[in-house]
Specification:
The chain is α+β, with helices and mostly antiparallel strands. It has 2 domains: 244 residues, 2-Layer Sandwich (BirA Bifunctional Protein, domain 2); 95 residues, Anticodon-binding domain (Rossmann fold). The protein is built from 17 helices and 16 strands. The radius of gyration is 27 Å and the shape is elongated. The two termini are 41 Å apart. The structure holds adenosine-5'-triphosphate and magnesium ion (MG). Magnesium ion binds next to loops. Adenosine-5'-triphosphate (ATP) binds next to strand 6, strand 10, strand 11 and helix 12.
Length: 424
Amino acid sequence: MIQRPRGTRDLLPPEVRLWQAVEGVARDVFSAFGADEIRTPVFEATELFVRSVGETTDIVHKEMYTFPDRKGRSLTLRPEGTAGVARAWIENGLSDRTHPLRLYYLGPMFRYERAQHGRYRQFSQIGLEVIGADTPLADAEVLAAMHEFFLRLGFDDLVIHLNNLGDPEDRVRYQEALRTALAPRRSELCSDCQRRLDENPLRILDCKVPSCQAVAAKAPAMDDVAGEASRQHVLQVEEQLARLGIPFVRNPRLVRGLDYYLRTVFEVISPKLGENTVLCGGGRYDRLIADLGGPAIPGVGFAIGEDRLIKVLPAAFREAVLAKSRLYLVPLGAAAQGQVLELARSWVREGVPVEVEVSGRSLKAALKRADREGFRAVAMLGEDELRAGSVSVRELTAGSQISVPVAALPGWWHKLIAGPVGKH
Ligand code: ATP
Ligand code: MG
């Protein structure tokens, strides 16, 4: 048997409804905040990610799916969404559009990671980017849209961690300060972090190995080294969040795993996943577009890990989505079989989800199945019903059976669904 590649998943019904519902909420909320969807390719020139995400990051160093195409060009399955959005922004001359331009995206990302809890090799992200505004207000708006999205799904236990990563000029000084502070403890670091100490000591703060985290906890904080401009910027973001009543904690060791961030960075932590399995990460990236050869246009955004989100989705939202019920239409006899699809089509056109019994089950077998599979109601179409222009409907939770004229069935169904049991 051929099996799916390690680290990938099949999303099966009915679970997949949760994905659709979550994506629907993302579209609703982000478009209500003025964003439009953008769809960029799933693979890009490798160079794009090397230059944007950064050569010394884990993503570029060891997680990318990179391959030559038939002409020998190096391509990479996108490990994240922002680089492609920035490239598309430059390539399509989106600088001519309104500023700022608010864009959201949904879709698969690929990283060659050790497959484990909450970590896949193909996973999905939902992201929002605001390109063309450098104000603290823009950061706060992005955070507000994110917060609204989580609220709409019923989350009440998420914690936003926030930090100031400083400006790139500050970073040089910070890297030096870190190297000086951490060098004496080199032997306590994992082998990756020993390399990071030489290449990019900032990355040590992002390491998940406990002994490295213990060392990192004693490292100097970026905010102590950062210039006044970035400190003021992040303070103003915090003020806006406070005004909106959006709770956050300042986490001085938060750095994120991508090189393009500066000033505001944030992560969303779910107590159900723990601090090492982050639900959402984001921040400001004012130099990214210029670094990729575009104009000096600032940006800010985040990406939510949809796989992890689904895993900790609040029970009420989950149940409401999974409880979505269908009507089971059972034809009894040849004459009914001749009419049943037409009847189903007319109901479907009036918004009734109808599942037709197409495999010839007997009434008894059909009722048994309806019970087992949680249908809300069964409509039976036999010879008597055909003559009368009606169906016999059995409501499964109540156990009652009535006769409903064919044309009145959609009205009856919508009322049933709006009632106390079906109300979601
Ligand atoms: P982590 O610290 O967990 O490795 P990251 O810093 O690499 O995350 P980002 O690049 O910021 O993550 O991606 C944003 C979000 O995408 C993460 O917060 C997470 O929810 C999700 N994500 C990242 N990598 C994976 C993965 N391999 N499997 C599932 N979700 C992922
Ligand atoms: Mg990672």
